[in-house]
């Protein structure tokens, strides 16, 4: 028996919003420790890694590990049926081929349940080594979304350069070029408004702007986004999901041909 | 000229 209850169904809606741009379907791996998801987009350029810890749920029970392959389009349709203030419970029997979503209004006067067929998905898990990154940048998530949106008007690629002074985002194309420099915040009153850079060595990497834009669909999950970079390895873009977990996007860089 | 790498260039299947 698997059962996970979340008082804020809006978190689940936001998680889905954050992954459905990149993935059509995904396997939710449920265990005693929580719900994990790892999936690459079709072109194998980016990867989504999400973790929701069991202790972050209002009730959590998972007697046996189960992997639930879900069509994210179908899941979106179902979660649209939940009001933001509803309490959501996901339920599945061991070895089930369906999952049930139960939505309860705060006053318990309306209770709906939606059963969704599960899919058998080929799981292609990648081993991601623990990495010490040369540069770790934290900035307001809304600012990052704005930068990605603004620069994607100029070219298909965004160059991210990180030095100890700050971080620079650049793009160039037919209409011209654009550079956005963010300096490290000198005095931090509010952490969620700060730009911070932890740097071992400077890094410059080039990425496809359309993936960066897709990652920013997670902006509503967190005030802060963290970018981790090292020379010649994939970028990690991380958003925390409240007190319950995180979503990380890995993006392979563009390399010299 | 740059080309898009894939994650398989960096990570192994587990």
Largest sheet of chain A: 9 strands, antiparallel
What's the count of strands of chain B? 2
Secondary structure: helix percent of chain A: 10-25%
- Residue-averaged pLDDT of chain A: 96
Shape of chain A: elongated
As a percent range, the share of helical residues of chain B equals under 10%
- Oligomeric state of shown chains: heterodimer
Largest interface: A-B, 24 and 14 residues
> Can you tell me the residue ranges of chain A where pLDDT is under 50 for at least 5 consecutive residues?
none
Radius of gyration of chain B: 9 Å
Helix count of chain B? Answer: 0
Question: How are strands sequenced across the largest beta sheet of chain A?
Answer: 6-2-3-4-19-18-17-11-15
| Poorly predicted sequence stretches spanning 5 or more consecutive residues of chain B | none
Write the layout of secondary structure elements.
The complex is a heterodimer of chains A (257) and B (14).
Chain A: E1 2-6, H1 9-19, E2 25-31, E3 34-40, E4 46-53, E5 59-62, E6 66-71, H2 72-79, E7 87-92, E8 98-104, E9 111-117, E10 126-127, E11 135-140, H3 141-151, E12 157-162, E13 166-173, E14 176-183, E15 196-199, E16 203-208, H4 209-215, E17 224-229, E18 235-241, E19 245-251, E20 254-256
Antiparallel strand pairs in A: 1-5, 1-7, 2-3, 2-6, 3-4, 4-19, 7-8, 8-9, 11-15, 11-17, 12-13, 12-16, 13-14, 17-18, 18-19
Helix pairs in contact in A: 1-2, 3-4
Chain B: E1 2-4, E2 12-13
Architecture overview:
The complex is a heterodimer of chains A (257) and B (14). In chain A, 14% of the residues lie in helices and 47% in strands. Chain A is mainly beta and 257 residues long. In chain A, the strands form 3 sheets. In chain A, strands 6-2-3-4-19-18-17-11-15 form a 9-stranded antiparallel β-sheet. A 5-stranded antiparallel β-sheet of chain A has the order 5-1-7-8-9, covered by helices on one side. By secondary structure, chain B is an all-beta fold. Helix content of chain B is 0%, strand content 36%. Chain B has strands at residues 2-4, 12-13. Chain A binds chain B through residues 40, 43-47, 124-129, 157, 206, 208, 233-234, 250, 252-257, and chain B through 1-14.
